[in-house]
Design a protein that fits this description.
The chain is mainly α and about 130 residues long. It is built from six helices and no strands. The protein has one domain.
Protein backbone atom coordinates (compact mmCIF):
# COMPACT_ATOMS: atom_id res chain seq x y z
CA UNK A 1 0.00 0.00 0.00
CA UNK A 2 1.34 3.39 -1.04
CA UNK A 3 0.43 5.13 2.22
CA UNK A 4 2.48 2.71 4.31
CA UNK A 5 5.44 3.02 1.96
CA UNK A 6 5.34 6.81 2.30
CA UNK A 7 5.24 6.64 6.09
CA UNK A 8 8.06 4.10 6.14
CA UNK A 9 10.17 6.33 3.86
CA UNK A 10 9.57 9.27 6.18
CA UNK A 11 10.60 7.18 9.17
CA UNK A 12 13.77 6.06 7.41
CA UNK A 13 14.73 9.65 6.52
CA UNK A 14 13.89 10.89 10.01
CA UNK A 15 16.05 8.15 11.51
CA UNK A 16 19.00 9.08 9.30
CA UNK A 17 18.70 12.82 9.96
CA UNK A 18 18.34 12.50 13.72
CA UNK A 19 20.79 9.75 14.62
CA UNK A 20 23.59 11.93 16.01
CA UNK A 21 21.85 14.91 17.55
CA UNK A 22 18.57 13.30 18.62
CA UNK A 23 19.14 9.60 19.44
CA UNK A 24 15.69 9.32 21.04
CA UNK A 25 14.10 10.24 17.70
CA UNK A 26 16.24 7.63 15.94
CA UNK A 27 15.21 4.93 18.44
CA UNK A 28 11.54 5.89 18.19
CA UNK A 29 11.80 5.77 14.39
CA UNK A 30 13.20 2.26 14.53
CA UNK A 31 10.38 1.13 16.85
CA UNK A 32 7.81 2.75 14.57
CA UNK A 33 9.23 0.96 11.53
CA UNK A 34 8.75 -2.38 13.28
CA UNK A 35 5.20 -1.40 14.30
CA UNK A 36 4.47 -0.33 10.74
CA UNK A 37 5.36 -3.79 9.48
CA UNK A 38 2.79 -5.24 11.89
CA UNK A 39 0.19 -2.77 10.64
CA UNK A 40 1.01 -3.73 7.05
CA UNK A 41 0.40 -7.40 7.88
CA UNK A 42 -2.86 -6.54 9.64
CA UNK A 43 -3.97 -4.55 6.59
CA UNK A 44 -3.15 -7.46 4.28
CA UNK A 45 -5.17 -9.85 6.48
CA UNK A 46 -8.14 -7.46 6.50
CA UNK A 47 -7.93 -7.08 2.73
CA UNK A 48 -7.87 -10.86 2.23
CA UNK A 49 -10.79 -11.28 4.64
CA UNK A 50 -12.87 -8.84 2.60
CA UNK A 51 -12.09 -10.78 -0.55
CA UNK A 52 -10.36 -7.74 -2.00
CA UNK A 53 -13.70 -6.06 -2.63
CA UNK A 54 -13.33 -3.18 -0.20
CA UNK A 55 -10.10 -1.74 1.13
CA UNK A 56 -9.99 -1.48 4.92
CA UNK A 57 -10.21 2.08 6.26
CA UNK A 58 -6.94 3.94 6.80
CA UNK A 59 -8.04 4.60 10.36
CA UNK A 60 -6.76 1.11 11.12
CA UNK A 61 -3.25 2.60 10.90
CA UNK A 62 -3.74 4.82 13.93
CA UNK A 63 -0.75 4.12 16.12
CA UNK A 64 0.93 6.18 18.81
CA UNK A 65 4.13 4.23 18.17
CA UNK A 66 4.18 5.37 14.53
CA UNK A 67 3.34 8.97 15.45
CA UNK A 68 5.86 9.21 18.31
CA UNK A 69 9.09 9.83 16.34
CA UNK A 70 7.49 12.65 14.38
CA UNK A 71 6.21 14.28 17.57
CA UNK A 72 9.59 13.84 19.25
CA UNK A 73 11.34 15.53 16.34
CA UNK A 74 8.88 18.43 16.45
CA UNK A 75 9.19 18.70 20.21
CA UNK A 76 12.57 20.43 19.84
CA UNK A 77 12.25 24.10 18.91
CA UNK A 78 15.83 24.02 17.61
CA UNK A 79 15.41 20.83 15.59
CA UNK A 80 16.35 22.62 12.40
CA UNK A 81 14.24 23.16 9.32
CA UNK A 82 15.12 19.86 7.61
CA UNK A 83 14.28 17.64 10.56
CA UNK A 84 11.22 19.67 11.57
CA UNK A 85 10.03 19.92 7.97
CA UNK A 86 10.26 16.18 7.44
CA UNK A 87 8.46 15.45 10.72
CA UNK A 88 5.73 18.01 10.02
CA UNK A 89 5.23 16.62 6.53
CA UNK A 90 4.73 13.15 7.99
CA UNK A 91 2.29 14.46 10.60
CA UNK A 92 0.36 16.13 7.78
CA UNK A 93 0.31 12.82 5.90
CA UNK A 94 -1.06 10.99 8.95
CA UNK A 95 -3.68 13.67 9.62
CA UNK A 96 -4.75 13.81 5.97
CA UNK A 97 -5.24 10.05 5.76
CA UNK A 98 -7.22 9.72 9.02
CA UNK A 99 -4.34 7.80 10.59
CA UNK A 100 -4.19 10.01 13.67
CA UNK A 101 -5.96 8.88 16.80
CA UNK A 102 -8.25 11.64 18.10
CA UNK A 103 -6.60 11.25 21.51
CA UNK A 104 -3.30 12.43 19.96
CA UNK A 105 -4.68 15.73 18.66
CA UNK A 106 -3.57 17.63 21.75
CA UNK A 107 0.01 16.43 21.39
CA UNK A 108 0.04 17.32 17.71
CA UNK A 109 -1.26 20.82 18.46
CA UNK A 110 1.38 21.25 21.17
CA UNK A 111 4.29 20.42 18.86
CA UNK A 112 2.81 22.58 16.11
CA UNK A 113 2.83 25.49 18.55
CA UNK A 114 6.47 24.74 19.42
CA UNK A 115 7.44 24.78 15.75
CA UNK A 116 5.57 28.02 15.04
CA UNK A 117 7.76 29.68 17.67
CA UNK A 118 10.92 28.44 15.93
CA UNK A 119 10.93 31.54 13.75
CA UNK A 120 11.84 29.64 10.57
CA UNK A 121 9.50 30.67 7.74
CA UNK A 122 9.73 27.27 6.01
CA UNK A 123 8.75 25.52 9.23
CA UNK A 124 5.93 27.99 9.82
CA UNK A 125 4.60 27.23 6.33
CA UNK A 126 4.68 23.48 7.08
CA UNK A 127 2.73 24.12 10.28
CA UNK A 128 0.10 26.08 8.37
CA UNK A 129 -0.17 23.30 5.79
CA UNK A 130 -0.69 20.76 8.58
CA UNK A 131 -3.58 22.59 10.23
Amino acid sequence: MEFLRLVEDELRHLCAESKKKYPEVKEASERATVALRGLRERYARALRASGGEAAPPLSMFRSQVVLAPFLLACNHAGAGPRLAGRALGAVRLLVGRDALDPADRGNVLRVLAIQVRSGDSTTELKVLQTT
